[in-house]
Design goal:
The protein has about 220 residues and is mainly β. The protein contains 1 helix and 10 strands, in the order αββββββββββ. β5 and β6 form a beta hairpin. The radius of gyration is 30 Å and the shape is flat.
Length: about 220
């Protein structure tokens, strides 16, 4: 396509998108103890090779990928706070919010009575957080929190006889915190056109190599 044709396809476009007013990274840590009796299935008596792991889920127990947005609720009106940043006074807002993180435990082991392995999945366990951040968050902006990284550690707590009592669970959450608002932008851009299709073609005939050393010699 020539340059003149490309210029003809250039237009001024209005696009609806979201403007980011502020963006910070934060972290949250939480811990809890889950009694063995809270599992939906009883662990076999004298189970051996017991291991436990935990992972991030939603309230229904469905695993969540990293960068998932989590629901947050602001718990107090935003309040203006003045800060000195690089020698200049900046007005920010104190934003207080609540979020809930859900974690599911998976317990595996071997039942010595039958010699078979078992897998027990817990119901989602909730971790509630009350948090605060100072952000550029004027009236009309919305708070968006996404999980940027997640790690979970679960340990098995036993009594003196080795019987399992509970599971100690600790989570570490890295989060992306943004304030955003919808905007309409005017852009001058080239319109996209379909690319050329890729067609599988038959290869050219291959001529077998000869042996010039011996023939014709």
């Amino acid at each position: 396509m020539g340059a003149n044709a490309k210029q003809i396809l250039q237009e001024v476009l209005c696009v609806n998108t979201e403007k980011v007013y502020d963006w910070i990274l934060g972290d949250s840590t939480g811990s809890t103890t889950i009694p063995v009796g809270d599992l939906p299935v009883t662990i076999p008596a004298d189970a051996v090779n017991v291991n436990v792991r935990c992972f991030l889920t939603d309230a229904e127990g469905t695993p969540l990928p990293i960068n998932t947005e989590v629901a947050v609720t602001e718990t107090a009106p935003r309040q203006d706070r003045q800060f000195e940043v690089n020698g200049s006074l900046v007005m920010l807002q104190r934003v207080m919010f609540r979020k809930t993180i859900y974690v599911v435990l998976e317990v595996t082991g071997t039942d010595p009575a039958t010699g078979t392995m078992f897998l027990i999945t817990s119901d989602p366990v909730s971790f509630n957080f009350m948090e605060m951040a100072f952000l550029c968050a004027p009236v009309g902006t919305s708070l968006v929190v996404r999980i940027s990284d997640f790690s979970c550690l679960a340990v098995i707590n036993t009594d003196d006889t080795g019987a399992i009592l509970s599971f100690g669970t600790q989570i570490f959450v890295c989060q992306s915190i943004q304030t955003i608002a919808p905007v309409t932008l005017e852009l001058t851009a080239d319109l996209c056109m379909p690319r050329e299709a890729i067609v599988e073609q038959c290869p050219a005939p291959v001529i077998p190599p000869q042996c010039p050393t011996i023939f014709p010699g």
